[in-house]
Amino acid sequence: MSYIMDKLKLLKEAEAQISQASTREKNFALEKVAEAIDNSREEILRNNQIDIENAIKANISEALIDRLKLDNSRIDGIIEGIKIVIKLPDPVWKSDRVWTVENGLTISKMTVPLGVMGIVYESRPNVTVDAFALALKSGNCIILRGSSTAINSNLSLVKAIKEGLKRSNISPDVIQFIEDTDRKYVLEMLRAKDYIDLIIPRGGKELIDFVVANSLVPTLQTGVGNCHVFVDKSADLEKAISIVENAKTQRVGVCNACETLLVHEEIAKEFLPKLYEKLKGQVEFRGCKKTMSIIPVNMATDLDWSEEYLDYILAVKLVASVDEAISHINKYGSKHSEAIVTENYSNANKFTRSIDASTVYVNASTRFTDGGEFGFGAEMGISTQKIHARGPIGLDQLVTNKYIVLGQGQIRK
Amino acid sequence: MSYIMDKLKLLKEAEAQISQASTREKNFALEKVAEAIDNSREEILRNNQIDIENAIKANISEALIDRLKLDNSRIDGIIEGIKIVIKLPDPVWKSDRVWTVENGLTISKMTVPLGVMGIVYESRPNVTVDAFALALKSGNCIILRGSSTAINSNLSLVKAIKEGLKRSNISPDVIQFIEDTDRKYVLEMLRAKDYIDLIIPRGGKELIDFVVANSLVPTLQTGVGNCHVFVDKSADLEKAISIVENAKTQRVGVCNACETLLVHEEIAKEFLPKLYEKLKGQVEFRGCKKTMSIIPVNMATDLDWSEEYLDYILAVKLVASVDEAISHINKYGSKHSEAIVTENYSNANKFTRSIDASTVYVNASTRFTDGGEFGFGAEMGISTQKIHARGPIGLDQLVTNKYIVLGQGQIRK
User: Fold this and answer.
1) Are A393 and B392 in contact (CB under 8 A)?
2) I need a surface site. Which of A18, A138, B250, B319 has the fewest CB within 10 A?
3) Which residue, B344, B352, B342, B360, is CA-closest to B237?
4) Which chain A residue's Cα is nearest to B367?
5) pLDDT 10s per residue in chain A (413 long)?
6) Which residue of B243, B410, B413 to mutate against A (max A Cβ within 10 Å)?
7) Do residue A48 and residue A190 come from a single domain?
């Protein structure tokens, strides 16, 4: 246990300091980190190249290699990400509720850092820096466990982060990285409930399920998105086509992309051929039987309704009413992002009230579920669970609260 | 799995209805439940008597039997508890944040019910009704697993609740009770992550640890309280004596009672004899070596600093500074409730900033950490964890959020 325990003890020691750091100290440290990354471009790119070569040798898919790849412009993006976090308001030691009870005690519900956050993530090395920057700004320590595929890239990024921190008032110990990718150390991390306050898995369904099943530390589930667009009878069809096209194709490999289209059967004959005309070269359609009688598409099976394709594939199902659309979505959806396209007030109202999801849209693309688009500036993923935080996880979701009670000698009767 | 699964499926069906119920419908249902409990007094007391007799036969401690016992006045208290919940504001479908982003999308962060809550609890039968009332008011379904000791009392209470619900618009299926106390069914409940959104264990440390270790459903940890009072050098000694007496003795078996007293060594010679005079017949003192040189008490061992006595025992330690007090509390405390008695502004400020706990007091008793005392009206326990809810869990902590995004055809660029 001592390999992981040594890191956890360093985090515990660093926690008291960073939780009390001023906004100015935290922003200064982030600036120094951005500088250090800028100054380490050569080393980072050289190490990334090693990861890429190993990935090619291991026959890893092109899509994954693209996620893994860093170049100067992606490093610019990483640095820009830090600068965005610097500009965001500090989420710590604020209150939206101060009140005084009958006996004269004044109670303030103050925001405070969570303490120590753990991130278990897959191949994208930019997560290393993004997650660190959000943790530091919210006064949290962080322990990171990335994939073996990205190990050299991550190590050089963590080295640069620590070099930056050394030039600030914040201890370099606030970030710990698990260099040894042996799975047993992930398990030790997941069981360290006295040292880690929250673990966020970032990656595919398998990773998330593994973390949730094995963690004694509370977890925040992110990412899996089986999102729907429902085109209602009264929809403005031009808006509908543009929204479905955007939700499906603007970026297919993301959790807020549309996977299933539901169409009210009374407008399907008018709407589906237009949509099909627009997308047929680009998107594979899989339809229910009624859909197949209108456009020439493959048949969808029951499995399609549950699938997160992350690809240029769209399942299509006709429904008889907004109620049927709601039932279908609440049964098969992953509670991520759901949209209705309608001009009918009551249906919009019913849909937004009844759909159980982190985000529900009327006449807009599901692709907007994102910390940046919501105005949170940056995010740690999209939570699809109900407790602690639901939807984009920004700085305001990386804190907890502490009640401060100021008295004049009150005792309880 | 079908015994538990049948109940979970009923909850899932009831969830859509109760989540959309109006405040008026929920309050009406609660009134009917209160009436039904009032009308079932005889049956409830008869069944409680069976539990009591079984407990006596099983040589269960008097303290536990007292917790188990119902009489007419305790049933009055249970009914009064429901009436308090009726009067509380509905926490559902509210927003404290609506904003419009640059592209014209208007985003509202609305409160919505969690869905299905699970409660695993020990002997007090009033928890059955308290937890149900809070769940119903917050639009949640609930599944309850009580202890075998209270099984007959709980069954008659649940029967009355369901009879009340039958006279309302809310389905009696919103409450499910696990009649079979075989432990394997608790495990099935803890693993039903697709059916239950949050599990709250209410009971001793062993129960809480068991639930957290075995649950795939997110949990909310409540209850364990190793709370401290620190009497600073500049304390007003009269306030200090009254606060320590209250925090230690007003009710010893509760999580917000004081277990360890820290005293600044510069006032210990004046303060400790006065406190000792006041409490010596009632409270057993266990002191550090320095304490023993001032008052005639038993020696505290290292174990005492971690112990939640829940009894008329007080550990006493002298410290040289507010910093030493803070270190001691952050090392040994259970992050529940911590108090400083001081007239020094900077020490009060430092203590409230640096102590890591759900609630931090200046010049007041730790006994105030309570949903009722905080003005929340009622509570589901005191959370000592950092995620989702920390401190008293009232109605506002039994909801999650849903972002509603209203557009005019927006797509992501």
Assistant:
1) no
2) B250
3) B342
4) A412
5) 589 999 999 999 999 999 999 999 999 999 999 999 999 999 999 999 999 999 999 999 888 898 899 999 999 999 999 999 999 999 999 999 999 999 999 999 999 999 999 999 987 899 999 999 999 999 999 999 999 999 999 999 999 999 999 999 999 999 999 999 999 999 999 999 999 999 999 988 889 889 988 999 999 988 789 999 999 999 999 999 999 999 999 999 889 999 999 999 999 999 999 999 999 999 999 999 999 999 999 999 999 999 999 999 999 999 999 999 999 999 999 999 999 999 999 999 999 999 999 999 999 999 999 999 999 988 899 999 999 999 999 999 999 999 999 999 999 99
6) B410
7) yes
Distance from CA of A336 to the nearest CA of B (A): 10
- The answer to whether A289 and A265 are in contact (CB under 8 A) is no
* B283 shares a domain with B254: yes
Overall domain count for chain A? 2
Asked whether residue B81 falls in the same domain as residue B27, the answer is yes
Task: Closest CB to A358: pick one of B368, B385, B402.
Answer: B402
Q: What is the pLDDT of residues B346-356, one digit of tens each?
A: 999 999 999 99
CB contact under 8 A, B364 and A406: yes
Q: Which residues of chain A neighbour B357 with C-beta distances below 8 Å?
A: 402
Q: Tell whether A402 lies on the interface with B, counting CB pairs under 8 A.
A: yes
Tell me the nearest-neighbour CA distance from A165 into chain B, angstroms.
Answer: 22
Is A72 buried (19+), middle (13-18) or exposed (0-12) by CB count in 10 A?
A: exposed
Domain containing B326: what range? 227-368
CATH number, domain with residue B190:
3.40.605.10
A7 and A86 share one domain:
yes
Q: Is residue A357 a part of any domain in this protein?
A: yes
Put simply, whether A401 touches B (Cβ < 8 Å) is: yes
- Distance (Å, whole) CA B303 – CA A207: 40
Cα separation, B89 vs B377, whole angstroms? 10
Contact A411 B242 (CB under 8 A): yes
Same structural domain, B64 and B78: yes
| Interface mutation vs chain A, best among B403, B406, B408, most A CBs within 10 Å | B403
Query: Among B93, B369, B386, whose Cβ lies nearest the Cβ of A115?
Result: B386
Give yes or no for A105 touching B (CB within 8 A).
yes
Handedness of CA B401, B406, B411, B413 (dihedral sign): negative
B358 falls within a domain = yes
Cβ contact, residue pair B406, A362, below 8 Å: yes
In a domain, A411, yes or no: no
Position of tokens 């935290």?
A26
Considering the domain architecture, whether residues B127 and B253 belong to the same structural domain is answered as no
Which residues of chain B have a CB within 8 Å of the CB of A375?
99, 101, 107
Strands across the sheet with B198-202, in order?
B175-177, B141-145, B116-121, B198-202
Say whether A368 and B105 touch across the interface (CB within 8 A).
Answer: yes
- B332 and B389 share one domain: no
The CATH number that applies at residue B254 is 3.40.309.10
Identify which of B139, B218, B198 has the alpha carbon closest to the alpha carbon of residue B174: B139
